[in-house]
Design goal:
It is a single chain. This protein has 496 residues and is mainly α. It has a single domain (2-459), classed as Amino acid/polyamine transporter I (Up-down Bundle), CATH 1.20.1740. Helices cover 73% and strands 1% of the residues. The chain has 20 helices and two strands. It has helices at 2-34, 38-41, 43-50, 66-77, 84-93, 96-121, 142-149, 154-184, 195-211, 214-243, 248-260, 262-267, 269-285, 292-296, 304-333, 343-354, 356-388, 394-409, 415-455, 482-489, and strands spanning 124-125, 138-139. Strands 1-2 form a two-stranded antiparallel ribbon. Helix 1 (2-34) packs across helix 6 (96-121), helix 4 (66-77) runs parallel beside helix 15 (304-333) and helix 6 (96-121) crosses helix 11 (248-260). The longest helix has 41 residues, at 415-455.
């Protein structure tokens, strides 16, 4: 087993170091230049759009709002990687890795905009929910814009398989195992043989309750969990930073110095900082990987660009807020890094400053982070199964397998599975980036249309007549309705 694990690690390191990291960075820079830094230029517009409310449908059902889609993607983005992943990056790459995580967030925001705007444009609508009830919801993502935008189904199927295996099964097993491991450090009697199976069964039951109501049930759960877990963790981190306020200048100096310092250059440290920062930043915010667009497509908005902006904001939320807080917790309390890494390092930093109670609070936070990630991960698989097949028996089978994997993931080590997941995730990123680079021209046309309407004082509404040569677009009307005209007529000042 160790030989297989080493082989997977070698393949994974080569794939990410020599192909995927350069491709993601170059694509992000191209999107940034081509969009005139949309992720920075329209930041105030992101906050405005996030507050948009979706009106109830004629049958009284409530569609997924921009904020609801934001929380689904945030639920999958914000996971144990924000606590354990950042700690590992600092341990292996030094404080300078944090700087390159920030760079990845700033550059990756443009990639997130492109892929999520495309997912909105090429989304499809079910006549019914897949459970056979309700008035239907939207679904979409890379598989859909590959088929409809590029006119090729086979890369969409390949991507759908990769994301379903990676997020639906592998990452859910990892999250379940992480919850069990952290809980074992806070609960007496955790060494008993019944502990891990009991935790696994509890997680499977809770996840089953959350997912069996479909996408609307998922959003009702994530809209509560994501803000709660973010606020609690940020409050803990803020307390640590305030108690170590005098160390902040040193921390920023270590971060910048570790990214560019001559000492690190001579020792080869800059290479480690860049590799760990870029890679962990990419894993954390998922910009360009093709996962978040599956959630972005579920929203019911008046213009595809709105969801592109919301998902760009999600990148900043994940990396510049949550990951940065983890870095500050560690670097203000543990300037000399030892052999510890992962969640243990973060937990130790918290308890050193705030006391043992903080470790128990972190256990609860990790539970919320990992459980909400499982919900988002499940939805990504469901959306892509809908792309591959419409057979009604497939979804219940998928749900049963996901719940079984969650249970089994609590029982043992997942080292080989985690490293294999990196390979699948790399495949996802490669397929997605090769698709959105040529399709980005359409995303930029959408952006031009959106900004033109905002400059005219309108709340933008997209119709197919605005870009008549588009093909494969199903869910957008040919012309705005009278009610949409009334809504836009009173809109405020336009975007830059």
């Amino acid at each position: 087993m160790s030989t297989l694990d080493s082989l997977i690690v070698d393949v994974n390191d080569g794939l990410w170091t020599y192909l995927l990291i350069p491709l993601v960075v170059c694509a992000g820079l191209y999107f940034t230049v081509r969009s005139r830094a949309v992720q920075l230029r329209l930041f105030p517009e992101m906050l405005r759009v996030l507050k948009d409310k979706s009106e109830p449908r004629a049958d009284g059902s409530k569609p997924v709002s921009s904020f609801g889609a934001f929380t689904i993607s945030a639920a999958a983005r914000v996971g144990t990687g924000n606590i354990a992943g950042v700690a590992t990056a600092i341990t292996l790459g030094g404080a300078g890795a944090v700087f390159w995580m920030w760079v990845m967030a700033l550059v990756g925001g443009a990639s997130a905009f492109v892929e999520s705007a495309l997912a909105q444009l090429y989304k499809v609508r079910d006549d019914k929910d897949r459970d056979g009830a309700g008035s239907g919801t939207y679904r979409g993502g890379p598989a859909y814009y590959m088929q409809r935008g590029l006119g090729k189904r086979w890369p969409g199927v390949l991507f759908a398989v990769a994301i379903t295996v990676t997020f639906g099964f592998v990452f859910n097993a990892v999250q379940s195992n992480t919850i069990t491991s952290v809980a074992s450090g806070s609960v007496s009697g955790s060494g008993a043989s019944w502990f891990a199976p009991s935790v696994g069964l509890l997680l499977a039951v809770l996840l089953g309750i959350a997912i069996c109501g479909g996408v609307r049930r998922i959003t009702s759960v994530t809209t509560v969990l994501v803000p709660v877990m973010a606020v609690v963790y940020l409050l803990l981190g803020t307390a640590v930073v305030l108690l170590n306020l005098g160390d902040l200048p040193r921390v920023f100096g270590d971060i910048v110095g570790g990214a560019f310092g001559f000492k690190e250059l001579a020792a080869g440290g800059i290479g480690a900082a860049i590799q760990q920062g870029v890679r962990r930043g990419m894993f954390s915010n998922e910009a360009g990987l093709g996962s978040a667009p599956n959630a972005g497509a579920a929203a019911e908005v008046t213009h595809p660009v709105k969801q592109g902006l919301v998902q760009s904001l999600g990148v900043f939320f994940d990396t510049l807020l949550i990951c940065s807080m983890t870095a500050f917790i560690i670097l203000t309390t543990t300037p000399e890094l030892g052999g510890r890494q992962g969640a243990d390092l973060t937990q130790s930093a918290l308890t050193d400053t705030l006391g043992g109670w903080a470790g128990h609070v972190l256990t609860a936070v990790v539970f919320l982070l990992a459980f909400s990630s499982m919900i988002g991960n499940y939805y990504y698989g469901e959306s892509n199964i809908g792309f591959m097949t419409r057979r009604t028996w497939v979804l219940p089978v998928y749900r049963a397998l996901v719940l079984a994997v969650v249970f089994l993931g609590a029982l043992g080590s997942v080292s080989v599975i985690w490293n294999l997941a990196d390979v699948f995730m790399g495949l996802m990123a490669l397929i997605n980036l090769l698709a959105i680079i040529p399709l980005s021209a359409i995303a930029f046309r959408l952006l031009d249309d959106y900004t033109a309407q905002r400059r005219s004082g309108l709340d933008p509404v997209f119709t197919r007549s605005r870009i008549p040569d588009l093909t494969g677009v199903e869910c957008w009307p040919d012309a705005p309705t009278a009610s949409e005209h009334r809504e836009t007529a009173g809109a405020g000042a336009g975007a830059a």
